[in-house]
Amino acid sequence: MPDGSRADQSAIVVGVGARQGVGGALAHRLSREGMHVFIAGRTADRLEALATELRADGGVVTPVVTDTTSEEAVIALFDHVEKNGPPLELVAFNAGNNLWGSLLEMEADFFEDIWRVACFGGFLVGREAARRLVPIGRGSILFTGASASLRGKAQFAAFASAKAGLRMVVQSLAREVGPQGIHVAHVVIDGAVNGEVVRNKVPGIEDRFGSEGMLNVDAIAEAFWQLHLQHRTAWTQELDLRPFKENW
Amino acid sequence: MRNGRRGDSIDNGQFDDSLHGGLVSANAPPVADAGPNQPSVPSGATVQLPGGATDPEGDLQSGRGRNLCADSDRARWE
Asked: Does A131 touch chain B (CB under 8 A)?
């Protein structure tokens, strides 16, 4: 049950798909604080399912069907929040598409699609968030990164390059708007996320990693929230998260 | 110094603000009016906005593409 202490604040979570995923967990965490949470994703049914859960817990949530690769859609999302919600306080960009394959067999549109979702989408969302938050001089813009943000393994040319590009977008944004009071941070998730997407994509992965060998989505969401709470004299720009027994 | 801070190359992104401030300012995007926000409204039905969904069957989490690696045994978690 939300405590309502932040009922005068809006939050946007972009990249909400699976019910048991980082986006969903973020929405739950922010809703617990009483914020009006706008959940954005491309699939209406999935957004509705999550919204139903949040409302059942007393949350205030608005699902917004959004293609994060569309500039028009991202601007419309932020316009909608500005007109229909309390002042914006936190934006989380969680869209991504961890797909892989041989670079030699990779088609150009495959590479470009992954870049559009993971990197270009992050640019659009970060830019719109900054445009709305800079005038009020506060707020957080948080981005989901991955191991691939830091290095490209074989078969991950598309995803790693997109994630590395996003990391640079985030660093640049942080240096530009940090001095104006906006906390911009990048969270490197260095391990397998114990969520619906990974479990479906890699059957048997839970057995492979063993008990608590994968990142718990609620624990990830808590780390995002703690970033938001940081005092601005001690901000983290990049945070890495991994299971205690991850081989890294 | 055209290249920004002393010792930096021209393409490392660390331009001296004092030298490039005009250019940055000229290119800065228009800032949205921070005007008064309306009080919180009750959460409602799913919102469909212009340009919102180009791929109704899609999913940001899984992307529009497919794994090129068909054999899941070959696939490794990155």
From this structure: yes
Whole-number average pLDDT of chain A: 94
Using CB atoms, pick whichever of A15, A131, A202 lies closest to residue B60. A15
Give A74-97 pLDDT, tens digit per residue. Answer: 999 999 999 999 999 999 999 988
Contact B49 A43 (CB under 8 A): no
Q: Is A233 on the interface with B (CB under 8 A)?
A: no
CATH architecture of structural domain A10-241: 3-Layer(aba) Sandwich (3.40)
Q: Do A172 and B13 touch (CB under 8 A)?
A: yes
Give the position of tokens 């048991």: A20
Residue bearing the bigger pLDDT, A80 or A208: A80
Q: Where are the domains of chain A?
A: 10-241
Give me the pLDDT at residue A7, please: 94
A positions 158-187 inside 8 Å of B (CB) = 159-160, 172
Q: Which amino acid is present at A90?
A: L
Task: Say what the pLDDT of residue A68 is.
Answer: 94
pLDDT confidence of residue B20: 31
Sheet containing A88-93: which strands, arranged edge to edge?
A: A238-241, A183-189, A140-146, A88-93, A10-14, A36-41, A60-65, B47-48
Which is it for strands A10-14 and A36-41: parallel, antiparallel or unpaired?
parallel
> Which residue, B21, B39, B32, B78, is CA-closest to A114?
B78
pLDDT tens digits along B44-54: 678 888 765 54
Mutate one of B33, B60, B68, B72 to test the A interface: name it (highest A CB count within 10 A).
B60
